[in-house]
């Protein structure tokens, strides 16, 4: 039995999220379906990072096991089966005990705002044509790195055992018509990035002071966070593993 990691990217607009759910259209279900068709055997994968309905991913990973050999045109065949809004970018050999979720060292997300109407950004960002204080936004992003307990930014009905996350990077970048939040952490809670963005936007709009922002974090109460930003602005950009952990398989 061999274990493989596969790297995928997807546009989340038409999906009820990444993870397989009963009676729901999900990215993972499409990947499992494509693998099962190609191998002519039932394949069930395990994902590294769950994303919510409508959220996009430039890079996400899954792992699966099989005793069957890989087709020499594995990438071509799988991508021919997958829908046009999902792409399989690579396949990697890993040790049999490797887990795509637990082996990951960090995940990086971006959330994009665009400030002028742009029909080409409709499914890739949040149209936000309002005056915003970038300095205040940046200050709020920096404050987040001082904390570890992010209970405030976790949606309810979650099954996690801890709300502790280690944020490595947290900052905003600004270009002519784009404002992008960049965040990297060892793990994220359900709805966490959108909660961070929505609450920081209240700071940037002058509706919440930095002191009140700190108080919201320390309250550990999700009713003090704003989760209202839409999903299409959010991208899972990178899942990082230890150096030399992923060994590319030579298929086309």
TrEMBL record:
GO MF annotation list: tRNA pseudouridine(38-40) synthase activity
Domain Pseudouridine synthase I TruA alpha/beta: 148-242
EC category name: isomerase
Residues annotated as catalytic: 52
UniProt: substrate binding residues: 109
UniProt cross-references to InterPro entries, sorted A to Z: PsdUridine_synth_cat_dom_sf, PsdUridine_synth_TruA, PsdUridine_synth_TruA_a/b_dom, PsdUridine_synth_TruA_C, TruA/RsuA/RluB/E/F_N
EC number: 5.4.99.12
Keywords for the protein's UniProt record, in alphabetical order: Isomerase, tRNA processing
Catalytic activity: uridine(38/39/40) in tRNA = pseudouridine(38/39/40) in tRNA
PANTHER family hit by this protein: PSEUDOURIDYLATE SYNTHASE, TRNA PSEUDOURIDINE SYNTHASE-LIKE 1
Subunit field text: Homodimer.
NCBIfam families with a match to the protein in the record: hisT_truA
UniProt family annotation: Belongs to the tRNA pseudouridine synthase TruA family.
Protein function: Formation of pseudouridine at positions 38, 39 and 40 in the anticodon stem and loop of transfer RNAs.
Protein name: tRNA pseudouridine synthase A
């Amino acid at each position: 039995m061999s274990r493989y990691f596969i790297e995928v990217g997807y546009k989340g607009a038409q999906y009820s999220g990444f993870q397989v759910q009963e009676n729901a259209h999900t990215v993972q279900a499409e990947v499992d379906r494509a693998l099962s068709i190609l191998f002519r055997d039932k394949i069930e994968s395990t994902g590294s990072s769950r994303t919510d309905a409508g959220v996009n991913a430039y890079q996400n990973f899954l792992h699966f096991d099989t005793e069957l050999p890989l087709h020499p045109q594995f990438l071509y065949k799988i991508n021919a089966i997958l829908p046009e809004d999902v792409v399989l970018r690579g396949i990697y050999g890993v040790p049999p005990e490797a887990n795509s979720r637990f082996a990951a060292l960090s995940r990086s997300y971006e959330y994009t705002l665009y400030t002028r109407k742009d029909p080409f950004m409709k499914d890739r960002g949040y149209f936000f044509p309002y005056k915003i204080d970038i300095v205040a936004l940046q200050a709020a992003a920096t404050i987040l790195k001082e904390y570890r307990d992010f209970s405030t930014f976790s949606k309810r009905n979650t099954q996690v055992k801890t709300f502790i996350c280690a944020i490595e990077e947290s900052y905003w970048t600004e270009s002519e018509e784009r404002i992008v939040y960049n965040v990297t952490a060892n793990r994220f809670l359900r709805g966490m990035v959108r909660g961070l963005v929505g609450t920081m936007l209240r700071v940037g709009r002058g509706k919440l002071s930095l002191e009140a922002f700190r108080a919201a974090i320390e309250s550990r109460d999700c009713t003090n966070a704003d989760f209202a930003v839409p999903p299409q602005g959010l991208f899972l950009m990178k899942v990082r593993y230890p150096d030399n952990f992923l060994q590319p398989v030579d298929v086309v």
